[in-house]
Write a structure and sequence with these properties.
The complex is a heterodimer. Chain A is mainly α. Chain A is built from 15 helices and no strands. By secondary structure, chain B is α+β, with helices and mostly antiparallel strands. In chain B, strands 13, 16, 17, 18, 21 and 22 form a six-stranded antiparallel β-sheet that branches. A four-stranded mixed β-sheet of chain B has the order 1-12-9-8. In chain B, helix 10 packs antiparallel against helix 12. Classes of the chains: A mainly alpha, B alpha+beta. The interface between A and B is large, with 50 and 52 residues.
Amino acid sequence: MYAYIIRRLWQMIPTMLGVIVLVFVLFNWVGGDPAYVLAGKISSAEQIANIRKQLGVDQAWYVQLWIFIQQVVTADFGASWSTNEAVSHIMATRLGPSLTVLVPLLIISTLVSIGLALAVAYVRASLTDRLVMISCTVGLSISILVYIIVFQYVFAYKLGWFPVQGWGDNFRENLFIYATLPIFIGLVVSIAPDLRLFRTFVLDEINQDYVRTGRAKGLSENRIMWLHVLRNASIPIITHVTSQLPGLLIGAFLIERFFSIPGIGREVILAVERSDFPVIKAITVYVAVATMIFNLLADLMYKAVDPRVQLK
Amino acid sequence: MFPVALFAVFAVSPPLSAANPNKVVRHVFPAAETGFDPAGAQDLYSGTIEQAIFETLLTYDYIARPAKIVPLAAESLPEVTDNGKTYTFKIRKGVFFTADPAFKGQKRELVAEDYIYTLKRLIDPKLRSPWAWLVEDKIVGLDELAEAAKKGAKFDYDKKIPGLEAVDRHTLRIRLKQTDYNLPFVLAHEPTSAVAREVIEKYADEGGRAMSNPVGTGPYVLKDWVRSSKIVLEANPGYRGFVWDFKPGSDPEDKRLIAEMKGKKMPQVGRIEISIIEEDQARLLAFEKGELDIMNMEAPLAPMVLDGATLKPSFAKRGVKLSRFVDPEITYHFWNMQDPIVGGMSKEKIALRRAMAMAFNVDDEIRIVRNGQAVEAQYPIPPGVVGHDPKYRTNIKFDPAAANALLDRFGYKKSASGFRTLPDGKPLVVTYFSRPETLGRQQDELWAKAFDLIGIKMEVQKIKFPEMIKLEKECKLMMRTASWIADYPDADNFMQLLYSKNIHQNNNACATIPEYDKLYEQSIRLPATSPERDKLYHEMAKIIETYAPWRLDISRYRNMITQPHVLGYKKHPILHSEWQYIDVRQGNGGSGGDVGTGEGH
């Protein structure tokens, strides 16, 4: 087990190098030269050259790439080019609001989707199953933008159940007042695809011989579904859920913008608009690292839920 | 030029602030701020906050239109001598910075040396201030200080230079290299707001900027700041205050403002809460729900609130107020005068640019793209700016027939493909550069329509803003639509845009027109109010129309709406923050009414 973990950690290094090169090439290719924006409305070639020198973008590409690698190794990405705020401070302060929305959303969405998937799979091919699947298909076909616009208008503005936008000073206020509608919208958007997917996983198991054997032995349907079927369906569910976890670090762009939540998603958009390379590369690297770690965790969890799985 | 003590607007009041902490104004920005160092931040929203926290020597009369300079931290307008080359300011005595650990428990008075330090900072290469141009090549000895720093030495803030002299503790003398009547405008611009050296040295980052610790002498202090999300200001308890005593102009709305505000000790509002909401729908819903008190109605939102120039009945009925005027800005289309296809001063090139200019329908832009919230720009100097001539009419009109005739006359023949070729028979393709966003796409379509009308093949190149500016400064961009908003309300800020010495800076058409240059050089030596200068500007406008480096497009309306309980609000064309001039009525809803009774008037 430990050898497996160490081997996987080693394998992260070439992957990380690939990410670094990709981000570097993409930014230098399409990112634009920030000096021209930072220089202001009226600026001379000399001032622009001075800014480029201070930002280090006047150096040879391999020097810039080496600096980037050093930054990744030391986890010190310097300061934002447009605000001079330390990138570490940006990450530390924006992550909380994003997680306040996305962690409850992921937990509730996963639990509700699993429960509903078991229920509709149990009554598969019935009218209920078909109605739920049709609803999911319709729900999937509508853009999240439509949900945000309509729900914000109806529930926040017309009915006044939630604030239209905003973010408070403490966790409780944020979770129960400002994050409630964004979480609700997130649930409506995410439950439909999750439910369809999880239902498929459950249906794959529900026709297996061990289910028939369990019933023949007189096990209750609850025990069969919640213990045996769910356990065997959990590997693809774990894969799906862990693949979503790195997304927590990116935040939900649209939700954060529409509800003025000071999270990472909003910061990413700002950084792209401002060609703020230190912020962009820090977030990209953190997401890449998180993706690799969560993938490793997923593999370890397979072993935990199914002893037949061999980690090699 | 500027007589002493002309304006008594900022009469000194008792030291205790009149602001009521229960009076709250909730404002909104549609984009994020960057930070609050006057020398470091260049965006409008950071500048708005800076104006509330810091003080410039001069400012603008809140009500007067066109904008009129009045003293702020200065006791009076400057004494101008030496034919406009020496300005002497008397700084108010007894003005203090807000308390900060940088002052080690001492009260810190604002003195002349603070402005010297502030102006020097703008040109310190380490800061890479976007506002260096405000002082560059203007003040005697200042550029030399910067040059020494560029050669590796540390910028010497202690070195005395002849151009910046503290005659005594409260007297500042500025000596210029040449006559410049625009200096008062520069000294009313927020990058020249006084900062305390101790504060900057305590909080500055590696780049020499103190973006997060604004300590000024202005009416408000920064209380809370969640970057890109929320900014809270509270009234500065040590602010000297002033009595609202502005004189009404010709605007009928001024009488209402006088009735609401005259004689009040200012500032009245104790707390300003600013939300940053990027999405149009969220901003409008928040305003309609009463979560905001003041907001700008940008063009995409205008049809939901306005019927043309007035509020929709549903808003007017609720008592929502509208403050509307044409922004001191121009939007214009320019062609690169160094481009081999569209540039040059030969007759056929001039004809080509004039034909393209005549093929563009500004009315369509106003109606379709701007939702009616703009006026056609007739003159390079927009309304609200000294030098604007409301009677001037451009001779470049939408006239596709005349445009086609002009092209025919100068040998731009149509080929079998239906598109015109250059007079030498080579293909004629015009590349229009625009940003990959909604406005850019709409302008692409308008220009595609224009080029169709005259049979010219057009290509659109989408690039991001930084890259566009880079190409523009390198004179490698054939054509695009640009905007320029006044940094200060004087014609020079606009007319310098085609001065050949500003190529690679802000002469984005890369134009060298000797006649224009000659007139511009004459104009900068004349006072702003001189009829001779206006005459020169008329001639320069005609030159722009004749050679067509630009096609003037539009000036946008600014539509600020306020809730009924907001009193005394009138959007200023140059000032960004008006909070110190307004009040909120308490007791009938809204932020001003929901909280306590406060003090009466």
